[in-house]
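Aim 2, interim progress. The first record below pairs a target sequence with its structure tokens.
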Amino acid sequence: MLASWTLSGLSAVSGGAGDPATDRSVSEPGNRLGRFVQITGIREQFTAIADALALAQGIVDTVREPVLVLDEKLRVIVASRSFYSAFKVSPEDTQGRLLYALGDGQWDIPKLRVLLENIIPEHGVMEGYEVEHEFPDLGQRTMCLNARQVFYKGGANRTILLGIEDITERRILEREKEELLRQKGVLLEELQHRVANSLQIIASILLMKARAVKSQETRIHLEDAHQRVMSVAAVQKQLYASEATGSVEITPYLAKLCDSLATSMIGDTRPISLKVVGDGGSTSSRQAESLGLIVTELVMNALKHAFPEIKTKGQITVAYEVVGMNWKLSVSEDGIGKADGAFAQGKSGLGTGIVKALSQQLDALVDTLAGPRGTTVSITHATFPTKAVHAA
């Protein structure tokens, strides 16, 4: 505006006089000033600087979290509106003052000094730097600081952009969540301990009654019930050992389960081996529980029907295969065999009914294949090409 006014004024003066000497004395300096303005572009420079400052201030004021712009001596150049609102200070008491002196020294924080005086000059940027401090009007707060050093052309000056995020509530919620998870873990551990004890008590009562009754048929039913209770206890124990609140690795889980089944149902008196083979894969604890119960029932059926004689030698193989979302569980034995399609019969035993019901819950199909090398019962979720697994 000053340059524009000067040029117009000088032009008016030179245009209104007729004396050539006057024209030269007035117009020549005006021409020189005009040429200077045209060469240096002062008007455009001032306009560009004003626009840049307005844009920068607008960006700072738009940010939700408090933002400070500091000079190299850590004095506040400008602050965002959110800073004034959050910390209840005014621009007059903020701009131009040393950061550590703001708010009666509430920002004179040792960790903040480390960030601004040591870390930022060395690294130029720092993100996620947490500071806990007692603020006079806010109380104990946890602040997440993000700082970045800005250099300008020529390297004469530098500024520091300091972003401040109040994460106090987030940290409180995280601690409450951790405490709730800890309490949940304690309750689950206590619940599983009580369930295991209850199953052991039930199994002991059934076994005691089986030994006391005189009826052979009743004794067989009680012993069968005892074994099923023990199988549920074995599944529960392995799921607890696998920390089954999340994903369960199937092959290790089945291996440990079958070790427990071999100990409780085969022991050292019968020459039968029980092994697990698999390709890996994991599943939820609920599905792992159903698979464990299916394996238990099929192993019990194999011991009962494929190896009726106590001294019969043989092997039971539990295999688990997985391809993408599809999986196949099979239990094979090299005993006396079983009629093909036994699981599809309308009238079946309790074990058969349990396997069919659990398979339906898993959206899987049950298939029985009997042959000279024994019987294989497969539980398949979807269908995919696979190798046949038989007891060796």
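The second target in this work package is listed in the same format:
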Amino acid sequence: MLEKKNYRIIEQNFNSSIGELDIIASTGKTLVFIEVKTRTSDDYGSPSESINTGKILKIRKTASLYLAKKDEKGFQDYRFDIITIMVKKNKIRNASGKINRDRASISDISEIAAELIDSCIIDHIESAF
């Protein structure tokens, strides 16, 4: 998804003592820190609603640590994006029921993966916070 929008993935799952950054990417001269939230229902709110003030503060502090450690140069700006993924629960159950680990071929798995992706609602919110 990001590559199709001309993003270059620099790093995934950067961990520090403060927290984790899911995706660090670039687009043009902008360094982008991306938080990914997935939900299978909205019983406890939407994926983006789970990103509260405390989480935002933690992401910003972790990004500052990343910038200090990695010495990323050549970027004129940085921003924080969110990718939300809403997966329909019944599609996960159906897909897992179709996989027989002893006999699943690559084409079977590819077909199931495509079906799961088609059953997701994915939203990319640029400059979210």
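The longest strand covers residues 77-87. This observation will shape the mutagenesis plan for the next reporting period.
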